[in-house]
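Good day; I would like, with your permission, to put a structural problem before you. What I wish to show you is a protein chain and, alongside it, a tokenised description of its three-dimensional fold. Here, with my thanks, is the record as I have it:
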Amino acid sequence: MNQLEKTIYLYYNWIQLLFNLLFIGFWYFSNDGLAFWDDFTYLNFANQVNYDLFEVTRNHFTSRVGLIYPVAWIIRWTGINALTITIVPLLTALFSLNLLMWYGKRAALLVGVLGGLFLICDYHFLHFATHLFPELPVAFCTLLALMSYDLMNRKEGDHRFLALLTALSLFAAFLIKTTVFL
């Protein structure tokens, strides 16, 4: 281990915490609430879920129950405002960041730090975290599926659990946005 790797190893958890705090700070200060038609549509359907008025129709947005129901539960518990409606994308972004850093730490310390840094600097990652779009939850489910599949191929865990995790994360991605398989 050279000096850079020793330093990264010593401060890896602090670097990961710093990346998480930077991302939360960005999310908080750049969140402008509802900005696009999709935001309004998903929020409207989530509100319909809370009033027992929601039904799946020919509108393709209604098929994304994997996004609509968690948002409905959050706004039921916390109320509707510019921050609470984007908690689901924020949480999936943070899960993706931490999953990537955990996996990168297993491969090489510098890979984990650079992967986390590139992720929090990516424009699309930052943009989709501040809007109620299904892209980040789908990206998290896909990342989880790919990583569990890779761990299964490397025989670094219980293959039955990892196969189940791969299948469940792909199914969750399908429920969030049915066009994931197209």
